[in-house]
Amino acid sequence: MIKKLLATAVTILFVGGTQAKSLNYFDAASVRIQAAKVLHQAGLLSTEEAQGLNWGVGEYHAIDIELEGMGNIGTGEKSVTKDVPAQEAFWYVNDMNVMGQAQKSEALMRRSDGKVLKLIVNGEEQDPDQGGGEVEIIEQYQTTVTVPAGTFDCFYIKAKITDDSGKEQIAELWVNPADVNLDGMLKIRMETQFGGLLMILREFGKK
Question: Would you tell me how many other CB atoms lie within 10 Å of the CB of residue 82?
């Protein structure tokens, strides 16, 4: 189950990552497609072990967004807002505000495998399957991390993601799906043209 949740942690993080697109930090839509490859290459994903997502309506993460050298540049919240039994799916919503620029992404996710069936960003429907590229795992191990939400044992994964145009980006993930709800994400650091962009878990729970 932990391996399945780890795969989902990466996948869903990038579904919600489009909040930074207007600042040219990260093309999250294309990286989402590579998320499963990251975990597979890290040896943390086996399709035979997929057990589906049991995230409940009202579960949420509140996050702080920082840019190294500048400090806090925004905040965000990820949450499950509605169950859709007819499609065996749920709506996973990310509301972000980065340097005064608000963005909302809504993903209809299938519970059985985490596949995004529909993606809406700022009210406009997007292709949930766009993008491509390759993923290379650079480093992975178990460690401990302290974030505003607390101190946790976690999995650390560092990967290089190369998109179809040849552009490379480094992503670092700290994940604990056992003690943290939803995707279990505690912290992410991404290399951008402006420096290191951090998304850090401030609070989690259920409303």
Answer: 12
